[in-house]
Amino acid sequence: LVTPDGDPAIDHFAEAARPPSAAEKAMLDTAAARIDEATAKRLLSTDRWAHDLAWRASLERFLFTPTVNIEGLVAGYTGPGGKTVLPHRAVAKLDLRLVPDMTFDGAVAALRAHLATRGFGDIEVNPSGGYDPTTTAADAPIIRAETSVYRRAGLDPLLWPRNAGSYPGYVFTGDLLRLPAGHFGLGHGSGAHAPDEYYVIESSNPKVAGWDVAVRSFVDYLFALAEPA
Question: What range defines the domain where residue 166 resides?
């Protein structure tokens, strides 16, 4: 499923992946210049990037190439003591991270075909969830309204062409609606999905918005959306 370096090895898996546009490459150039590489390495507990790529190249690879990851692997008896048994069943949990122009159905079909071609057609592939990728152009009105509110708050927003996470935004951005979508909000939080996930309610730092300012920012956002282009 992956190469020795951890790259996807599924036949035809990434053929539809859309390469970065000129505008997206420009956003990456800005991000690479503004974000401190040493800080990023410290936060991610690493001292080098995959394939020993340079900072700018690693960001492009990170945001524009799909991944295949084995989340879990279980087989045989794993309880206390020992048993003289031959494991009759093995289960692997995978996650496939897709980029625009790839599809959920296409990724699953590529995985099944890849296994069958190598004599593993008896392996059951049972998708437990997933959806198509989502993307919105940086010059969409909804994004321009977001950046306008940030700038009025004294912030200089950094636009990313991709976000390393998952949410079913394709419902809005894909067929049939084809509407722009984006993430917005002032304030600060971290540790998403972790036991210590948090969001600042009352801020003692004048540079960090609390809950009250965050709520009002959405009012400003709606007014910005209503302004003529």
Answer: 141-226
Locate 134 and state its tokens.
């989502």
Residue 45's Cβ-count burial label (10 Å; 0-12, 13-18, 19+) is exposed
Residues 40 and 107 in one domain: yes
Instruction: At 148, list the tokens.
Output: 């306008």
Paired residues of 73 in beta bridges: 92
Split into its structural domains, the chain has a count of 2
Residue after which a domain boundary falls, among 82, 117, 152: 117
One domain, residues 45 and 89: yes
Q: Is the dihedral of CA 19, 6, 39, 133 positive or negative?
A: positive
Q: Tell me which of 117, 149, 177 is where a domain ends.
A: 117
Which of 51, 58, 53 has the alpha carbon at shortest distance from 28? 58
Residue with tokens 């067929």: 175
Residues 85, 40 within the same domain: yes
Classify the phi-psi angles of 157: left when phi > 0, otherwise alpha if psi is within -120 to 50, otherwise beta.
Answer: beta
Indicate the SS3 state at residue 142: helix
- Give yes or no: residues 88 and 170 share one domain: no
pLDDT tens per residue, range 115-136: 999 999 999 999 999 999 999 9
The two three-digit tokens of residue 220, written as one number: 């400003």
pTM of this prediction? 0.87
Dihedral angle sign, alpha carbons of residues 217, 218, 219, 225: positive
CA angle 135, 137, 141 (to 5 degrees): 120
Return the number of other C-beta atoms located less than 10 Å from residue 178's C-beta. 8
